[in-house]
Design goal:
Blueprint: E1 4-6, E2 16-18, H1 21-32, H2 38-45, H3 49-61
Antiparallel strand pairs: 1-2
C-alpha cells in the first residue's frame, strides 16, 4: 500500500496525507478518548476507514482501560422517582 493517499473528506480537497507514526498515534489517542470519530481519524492519518479500524483494534489490545468498574453496582446512587404513588 502506498504511504500517500488522497484526503477522503469528499469536499473536493485532493491533497495527499502521508501516514506517519505520529499521525497514527494522535488518531489512536483521539479515538481512545472519544475526541475524534473514525472517519476523521482515518482522514487525519491518510488511511481508509477499514485500515484505521484494524489499527485501532490492535491499539486496544495493548493498552489498558482508563476507567474503574465498581464491583457492587447496587451501591451507586440512583435517581429518585419524582412521581408520587
Amino acid at each position: 500500500m502506498s504511504d500517500l493517499k488522497k484526503n477522503q473528506r469528499g469536499n473536493g480537497n485532493t491533497s495527499k496525507v502521508k501516514t506517519t507514526p505520529e499521525n497514527v498515534a494522535e488518531a489512536n489517542e483521539a479515538l481512545f478518548h472519544a475526541t475524534m470519530n473514525l472517519p476523521t481519524a482515518a482522514t487525519h492519518c491518510g488511511m481508509t476507514q477499514r485500515e484505521m479500524k484494524h489499527i485501532f483494534r490492535e491499539y486496544l489490545k495493548y493498552h489498558d482501560k482508563n476507567f474503574e468498574v465498581t464491583e457492587d453496582a447496587n451501591s451507586l446512587p440512583r435517581r429518585e422517582e419524582s412521581c408520587p404513588e
